[in-house]
Design a protein that fits this description.
The structure is a single chain. The protein is an alpha/beta fold. It folds into 2 domains: 2-38 and 87-306, HUPs (Rossmann fold, 3-Layer(aba) Sandwich), CATH 3.40.50; 331-439, Glutaredoxin (3-Layer(aba) Sandwich). It is built from 14 helices and 12 strands. It has helices at 42-51, 68-80, 90-96, 102-113, 125-136, 152-165, 176-186, 191-194, 197-212, 301-306, 335-343, 361-377, 394-400, 429-439; strands at residues 2-6, 15-19, 28-33, 117-120, 141-145, 170-172, 217-222, 331-332, 351-356, 383-388, 408-412, 420-421. A 5-stranded mixed β-sheet has the order 3-7-4-5-6. A 5-stranded mixed β-sheet has the order 8-10-9-11-12, with helices on both faces. Strand 11 and strand 12 (420-421) form a beta hairpin. Helix 1 (42-51) crosses helix 2 (68-80) and helix 4 (102-113) crosses helix 5 (125-136). The protein starts with a strand and ends with a helix. Its cofactor is [4Fe-4S] cluster. InterPro entries: PAPS/APS_Rdtase (IPR004511), PAPS_reduct_dom (IPR002500), Rossmann-like_a/b/a_fold (IPR014729), Thioredoxin-like_sf (IPR036249), Thioredoxin_domain (IPR013766). This is Thioredoxin domain-containing protein. Keywords: Iron, Iron-sulfur, Metal-binding, Oxidoreductase.
């Protein structure tokens, strides 16, 4: 669980992230909050003078505004009783919570921010957050982003959650004019053609920003094992893996239909046993792109500088990186070689080929497993090869070899000219061998 601080002023803001780690690797919680600045707005000054720790009995909307009467009264109070605001030591707080339980972290968050913090709820992991919040005995707020494209089961799930926890979720909706412009210009399913980022920006990111304007902090549920390009560095938090709604908690009916990670209806599909759960989200895009934009702050800045929209480095063929997959058991194919292989209808032996770019960090990450695969297949009837598909070869690979992102793995069957694309993001030796054995 972590506190991410940024100054809530109209000037430029700074941000930092502090974490408290716990042993489990299953579910992760993240608390992001606005830093208490050196200046306090008039309405907050009044609340501070009345007692900073006082709890509110009623929950106001996310975008609640202070009345003019309170603001004018605050002006007089500040003139007579200027207050020195002490900034929170988030770094020290992170150390204090280093060995705390998730319940203790939740309790501290609700204690610190009171009515100015809310839980961002979308389902699955977030139910655990609601359970922890309930166990604290403190009042808490919950908001959710209704994109307008959710499954009917998700809406039923939200209703069940409200009834189970006796809460009222504060829903945020996208701007109707923005949605209308997007749909009229690009159609209802433009994300299948040019990526999901634009649609998510309109339907998720901007509504979230509007919600956060009325808060000092927000709590989200994220998992470290999801989206390797963005969530691998989030703080570790322990969540009870046995909590699955067994004690009467609400469960999305889609989970029983093979859906694991659930988002908008057109961008979500079931996954097979053994597949990574995020493979059911934006399945037409590469692993590093599988964030809607709500949690892009998890990406390291040095990674941002080195990535393009396809989860790959900016360079396109002129990289200085040395070549990879260098072993005698892997055949290096040039353009002519891969073209000839693709044209053959009756090959003497099947091939498994990786389309790669040496600068791609995902290609680099799978080098060891692919080399090991080639060694296992050495002497068998299956040939292992590589084709560098960046630079001048990228357009050809995209058009003729199903290249979508790096790396792309193709299996060329013995008695069929059409190559079969490896569908998974699990590129360990066992997964690759299972793919080959199913087709050989």
């Amino acid at each position: 669980m972590a506190f991410a601080a940024s100054a809530p002023t109209s000037s430029s803001s700074s941000s930092s992230l502090f974490s408290a780690s716990f042993p489990s690797s299953q579910s992760r919680d993240l608390i992001k909050c606005s830093q208490i600045g050196s200046l306090m707005s008039p309405d907050r000054a009044v609340r501070a003078l009345k007692g900073r720790r006082r709890r509110c009995d009623r929950v106001g909307p996310v975008l609640a505004e202070s009345s003019k009467g309170i603001a004018s009264a605050a002006t007089g109070v500040i003139a007579d009783h200027p207050e020195v605001v002490v900034e929170e030591d988030y770094e020290g707080l992170a150390k204090d919570l280093a060995e705390a339980s998730p319940l203790e972290v939740m309790d501290r968050a609700l204690e610190m921010f009171g009515n100015d913090i809310a839980i961002a709820f979308s389902g699955a992991e977030d139910v655990v957050l609601l359970e922890y919040a309930r166990l604290t005995g403190r009042p808490f707020r919950v908001f959710s982003l209704d994109t307008g494209r959710l499954n009917p089961e998700t809406y039923q799930f939200f209703d069940a959650v409200e009834k189970h926890y006796d809460i009222r979720i504060e829903y945020m909706f996208p701007d109707a004019v923005e949605v209308q412009g997007l749909v009229r210009n690009k159609g209802l399913f433009s994300f299948y053609e040019d990526g999901h980022q634009e649609c998510c920006r309109v339907r998720k990111v901007r509504p979230l920003r509007r919600a956060l304007k009325g808060l000092r902090a927000w709590i989200t549920g994220q998992r470290k094992d999801q989206s390797p390009g963005t969530r691998a560095e989030i703080p570790v938090v322990q969540v009870d893996p046995s909590f699955e709604g067994l004690d009467g908690g609400a469960v999305n009916a889609l989970h029983s239909q093979g859906y694991v990670s659930i988002g908008c209806e057109p961008c979500t599909r079931p996954v097979l046993p053994g597949q990574h759960e995020r493979e059911g989200r934006w399945w037409w895009e590469d692993a590093n792109a599988k964030e809607c934009g709500l949690h892009k702050g998890n990406i390291k800045q040095e990674d941002v500088a080195n990535l393009n929209g396809n989860g790959a480095a900016h360079t396109n063929g002129t990289a200085t990186n040395s070549d990879i997959f260098n072993t005698q058991s892997i055949v290096t194919l040039n353009r002519v070689g891969i073209e000839n292989l693709a044209r053959l209808e009756n090959r003497r032996e099947p091939w498994i080929i990786v389309l790669y770019a040496p600068w791609c960090r995902f290609c680099q990450a799978m080098e060891g497993s692919f080399v090991e695969l080639s060694e296992k297949l050495a002497g068998s009837a299956i040939k292992v090869g590589k084709f560098r598909a960046d630079g001048e070869q990228k357009a050809f690979a995209q058009q003729e070899l199903q290249l979508g992102s790096f790396p792309t793995i193709l299996f060329f069957p013995k008695h069929s000219w059409h190559p079969i694309k490896y569908p998974s993001e699990k590129r360990d030796v066992d997964s690759l061998m299972a793919f080959i054995n199913a087709l050989r």
